[in-house]
Amino acid sequence: MYTHLLVPTDGSELSTKALTQAINFAKSLGAKITFLYVQPEFPLLIAGEGALLLPENREEFARDTAAQAEQILSEARSRAAAQGVEASSCTAVSDVPYQVIINTADAEGCDLVFMASHARKGLVGIILGSETKKVLSHSKIPVLVYR
């Protein structure tokens, strides 16, 4: 059936629940997991007459998001190891998470994406859409969505 799952995670409560279910699913199949955390790009905020507002300096932002990624991925690998599931992890920096998820699944040879649904509602959902929906629409491999 499935032998290699890609499990994107962002450390949120729903994502952590999906991660737990993905580990259980992989264990039942004898499959391995690659965990993925997509770090955001450095934000540039424009205000007023085009003035740039920088929330932090670029290096500090990159260091903080990389540390957050490693913390989340380390916890994911530990949880998988505790269940006897082979797991690795990777991270990438992008403001287009769905594309990173699809590209990583392909590059890692995954045969299933197992991810949480973070459906946005209202106007935000119309404008931004859902990364899960985008993965479902563009992925060439099966996607299992945990709700």
Automatic annotation (TrEMBL):
It comes from the Bacteria. Pfam families: Usp. InterPro entries: Rossmann-like_a/b/a_fold, Universal_stress_UspA, UspA. Residues 1-147 form the UspA domain. Belongs to the universal stress protein A family. PANTHER family: STRESS RESPONSE PROTEIN NHAX, UNIVERSAL STRESS PROTEIN HP_0031. This is Sulfate transporter. The lineage of its organism: Bacteria, Pseudomonadati, Pseudomonadota, Betaproteobacteria, Rhodocyclales.
